[in-house]
Amino acid sequence: MQVLTTIAETRSLLEKARADGRSVGLVPTMGFLHAGHRTLMDRSVSSRDVTLVTIFVNPLQFGANEDLATYPRDFDRDAAMCESAGVDVILHPTVEEMYPFGTPTLTSVSVAEVSAPMEGASRPTHFAGVATVVAKLFNIAGPCHAYFGEKDWQQLAVIRRMAGELSFPVEVVGCPTVREADGLAMSSRNAYLTPEERAAAPVVHWAIAAGERDPAKVRALVSDLISAEPLADLDYVEVVDADTLQEVDPLVGKLRLLAAVRFGRARLIDNEGATTAAPT
Ligand code: AMP
């Protein structure tokens, strides 16, 4: 496994691989890797010839009062996980390498509508930061399959739309959410939870899952279940169209239930799918 820090080296390695007829898989991450990231790597390693994992805590996607400075990092442990997964290359660039003209960048990719509600409403600059760094990573990686987790459902929808509308030669692949045994979606930010908050946090998953068969009652039900947990502070719960992330009325078709909940320092997100048939 090679560990690279520059865009130029990464580009030339992948260009050579493709010239040799080898396919490329890209797994973008912010590091502090866990079993959720591992499934994305496994998916890429088993289906592509060369897998690139990027480890970069992207300042553009953090708001002014968010956790950029304290975001958990452990490069040596991450590299060991990549090595054991059979990853071929890690790109671990500095902020200066990624943003040579400084931040905020003058050039930014924004995806209207899909970015607007939920995470976009709570974190107004977040998705432009995500779309901009992912556009850069797609430009660096070149033609490839890129693997993203369904845990960040709205992010996946934003990236799919961006890749399609800007004609990136990239196939975006969504991978199911990996959970702890008690249902909590794995997240690097779970490291912020105190033992008491950690014990309470699975309520996010069970509250969303509980409403799945009756979308019309979901908002009230999920919010009641989450309010019943004293350590949980509900940010939002929404039932929306799974692809456009817009509200749907009546609640028919491919829907997604999404919630964000604060537990002390940690802000956790989760989502579940639900399909409802039109009334007959
Ligand atoms: P992050 O390092 O948090 O930016 O995540 C990097 C990628 O891993 C994103 O595509 C996430 O959606 C994905 N990911 C994070 N947590 C999970 C999880 N529990 N299950 C599946 N994918 C995940």
Query: Distance between the terminal alpha carbons, to the nearest Å?
Result: 57 Å
Give the total of beta strands: 9
**What's the gyration radius in Å?**
19 Å
Tertiary shape: globular
Detail the poorly predicted runs: none
H and E string: EHEHEHEHHHEHEHHHEEE
Largest sheet: 6 strands, parallel
Describe this structure in words.
The structure is a single chain. With 280 residues, this protein is α/β, with parallel strands linked by helices. The chain contains 10 helices and 9 strands. The protein has helices spanning 7-19, 35-47, 75-85, 95-98, 119-122, 126-141, 153-165, 195-200, 203-210, 218-227, and strands spanning 2-4, 24-29, 50-55, 89-91, 144-149, 170-175, 233-241, 253-263, 266-276. The protein has a 6-stranded parallel β-sheet, sandwiched between helices. A 3-stranded antiparallel β-sheet has the order 7-8-9. β2, α2 (35-47) and β3 form a beta-alpha-beta unit. α6 crosses α7. The longest helix is centred in the middle third of the chain and has 16 residues, at 126-141. The model has no long low-confidence stretch (mean pLDDT 94). Adenosine monophosphate binds at residues 29-30, 36-37, 39-40, 148-149, 151-152, 175, 177-178, 185-188.
What can be said about this structure in brief?
The protein is of the alpha/beta class and 280 residues long. The protein is built from 10 helices and 9 strands.
Topology:
Layout: E1 2-4, H1 7-19, E2 24-29, H2 35-47, E3 50-55, H3 75-85, E4 89-91, H4 95-98, H5 119-122, H6 126-141, E5 144-149, H7 153-165, E6 170-175, H8 195-200, H9 203-210, H10 218-227, E7 233-241, E8 253-263, E9 266-276
Parallel strand pairs: 1-4, 2-3, 2-5, 3-4, 5-6
Antiparallel strand pairs: 7-8, 8-9
